[in-house]
Amino acid sequence: xxxINIFCFGFGQVAKNFIKKIHSKNLKVKLTVTSRExxxxxxxxxxxxxxxxxxxxxxDKKLIxxxxxxxxxxxxxxxxxxxxxxxxNFQHILENSAAKWITYLSATSVYGNHNGNWVDExxxxxxxxxxxxxxxxxxKNWLNLAKKNLPIQILRLSGIYSNQSNILKRIREGxxxxxxxxxxxxxxxxxxxxxxxxxxxxxxxxxxxxxNVSDDKPASTxxxxxxxxxxxxxxxxxxxxxSSIENEMIKNFYKDSKKVNNQKxxxxxNYKLKYPTYVEGLNYIHNNTI
Length: 290
Known about the structure:
Blueprint: E1 3-9, H1 13-24, E2 28-35, E3 40-44, E4 47-53, H2 63-69, E5 72-75, H3 85-95, E6 101-107, E7 118-119, H4 130-146, E8 152-157, E9 159-161, H5 167-172, E10 178-180, E11 188-190, H6 191-203, E12 210-213, H7 221-232, E13 239-241, H8 248-253, E14 259-260, H9 263-268, H10 278-288
Parallel strand pairs: 1-2, 1-5, 2-4, 5-6, 6-8, 7-14, 8-12, 9-11, 10-13
Antiparallel strand pairs: 3-4
Helix pairs in contact: 1-6, 7-10
């Protein structure tokens, strides 16, 4: 593979790290992305690309030709008002595109609460949050499209952190609080590992498959905050009761407790995580970006 024509619905941190990974391999890249901003030509990582306006209300029709000719399509846009706006607007075009690789980025919130037990791709999906319900509905719609011989895979991402967005930054800014919730486990994944898995899937791909993308060590938020505070030599942040939290998204987060199994991902892609646990991830961030 020497050349890739890729269309990214949404161009956030995952898509950017993926493109950076591809570009680092000296592949010839034609990149098209969508954004809520007005259409314009842009540059990223010394790569010139086209960005087309796309929202739930409208899109620049000039993007259609680029979409038709793209052989790789990444969807990282979350459902809007419960609906997948990519399928809503472009299903017919996707069915008649040149795509040989379509990846939908979902979330492990589709599993809901499993009382701290392990979940894998065969586990029951019983989302407790609106976000999780919408993600699961979108997954079903993408898998229905896959029945029309479209090459679609789904990655269920755990909580994403990066060198720019992480618990160390929140601790330093005074925005980290320990929530008093026992037996609350969640999994996370560094954005570089997501980008690496996406890159591996360019070479090894199986349609209609679902993969959990998470690290090896589920943990409580308290455990991670305490480790981060120790790294930074900060005092332990205050502990608050869950009932005192007003932010609905944070409240929903604490409804779920589960440990996400990543064996299928690691075995299929023969992949060794760069940051197998939060320890390696936070150590790298602390030593290299702070």
